[in-house]
Amino acid sequence: MNYEKQIQESETHVFKVVFPNTTNHHNTMFGGKVMEMMDEVAFMTATRFARKSFVTVSCDRIDFRKPIPADTLVELVGRVKYVGNTSLKVNVSIFVEEMYQNSRIEVVSGDFTLVAIDEHMKPIRIFEI
Ligand SMILES: CC(C)(COP(=O)(O)OP(=O)(O)OC[C@H]1O[C@@H](n2cnc3c(N)ncnc32)[C@H](O)[C@@H]1OP(=O)(O)O)[C@@H](O)C(=O)NCCC(=O)NCCS
Questions:
Q1: What is the pLDDT of residues 32-87, one digit of tens each?
Q2: Of 15, 12, 2, which is closest to residue 45 (Cα–Cα)?
């Protein structure tokens, strides 16, 4: 089945300001906070894709290629990259923008697998066949 239209329409973009309450002693964003934001965007993307209830079952390798400095803006982009029976995989990338300059670089990327569940927390098909 071709899901390209739904994938396109459910691509999810979230912007955040890198405020001091999200940074570590290096004055860059705390890795645990980054993963929390990525998981949330993966959840939003999956939900918008299928309009079903999802839980995260795993995340693949997350590459932190560059630090995310304080006083910048970040954009998280979630996009479905694989659709299984009851699970799907969402890639989440993070881009950093300077506040007062036109610059934008990709700094983090990772994949999250989420499973569609029913009211008893049992996996259900994402789409009926
Ligand atoms: C998600 C959960 C309901 C899956 O239950 P389960 O009995 O393992 O389900 P199944 O073995 O039938 O697998 C269901 C799907 O998940 C996939 N899956 C299961 N474990 C996986 C893992 N570790 N990594 C990737 N995919 C996985 C299976 O391949 C299957 O995909 P498919 O149907 O598309 O082929 C259960 O593991 C769970 O409740 N986990 C806790 C979730 C949670 O609390 N998350 C944090 C808060 S959101």
A1: 999 999 999 999 999 999 999 999 999 999 999 999 999 999 999 999 999 999 99
A2: 12
Contact yes or no for 100/122 (Cβ under 8 A): no
**Segments making up each domain of the chain, as ranges:** 4-116
Residues within 6 Å of ligand 1 by CB: 55-58, 84-87, 113, 115, 117, 121, 123
Residue 87 CA to ligand 1 centre (angstroms): 7
Ligand 1 atom closest to Cα of 122? Answer: 3
Nearest to 31 by CA among 88, 104, 94, 91: 94
Tokens 């290629």 found at: 65
- Does the global pTM surpass 0.70? yes
Please tell me the distance between residue 115's alpha carbon and the centre of ligand 1 in angstroms: 6
CATH number of 4-116: 3.10.129.10
